[in-house]
Amino acid sequence: MIRLRNFVLMTTTALTLAACAPSVSPLYRDYEVRAVRASEEASPDVYARIRAALAKAGWTETEADAPNIVSTEPRQISGWGLFRTEVALDVAPIGDSHVRVLFHPIRYSFLGGRTKIGYLGRGARRSILPDLNAAFEEQGFEVLGTAKERDENNRSNDEET
């Protein structure tokens, strides 16, 4: 009887913790660089296309730490009275065929402290990604997402065939 009670307690605890786990995501998104046809408005220069996509999505460019990166100023994405969250972006071409967008979320406390956030939460994704993805697609980039998202897409495509 005690073993059954312990089993039920452990199972219930595990299911409760799994249901309450936050939905988190890595701090990057990948995009594939598609070739630009002469008839399209997008520039063949990847950096010009990145800058145009960021401007279209409402991000303001700032001086980057490295010459091969396009950086943005931090933008507030949430404010709950006790703290606010700001995100800055770094966009870096990876070779000739990919671009990686790195997110830098920081939470500021009303007491003046700041904390780097190690993941991109659901609310941050909802407020940032739709406009950013649409702007990058308009400039001729294909959204690849994260490695996990690519694996899930590949798995679902394999099941369909």
Observed structural traits:
4 helices, alpha+beta, 8-stranded antiparallel sheet, 161 residues
Cα-to-Cα separation, first versus last residue:
48 Å
Largest sheet: 8 strands, antiparallel
Q: Which geometry do the CA atoms define?
A: flat
Number of strands: 8
Structural class: alpha+beta
What is the CATH topology?
A: Alpha-D-Glucose-1,6-Bisphosphate, Chain A, domain 4
The stretches of 5 or more residues where confidence is low (pLDDT under 50) are none
The appropriate CATH architecture is 2-Layer Sandwich
**Domains counted in the coordinates: how many?**
1
CATH class: Alpha Beta
Number of helices: 4
- Determine the strand fraction and express it as a percent band: 25-35%
Q: Could you tell me the mean pLDDT?
A: 83
The proportion of residues forming helix, as a percent range, comes to 25-40%
Q: Roughly how many Å is the radius of gyration?
A: 20 Å
Oligomer: single chain
Element-by-element helix/strand order: HEHEEEEEEHEH
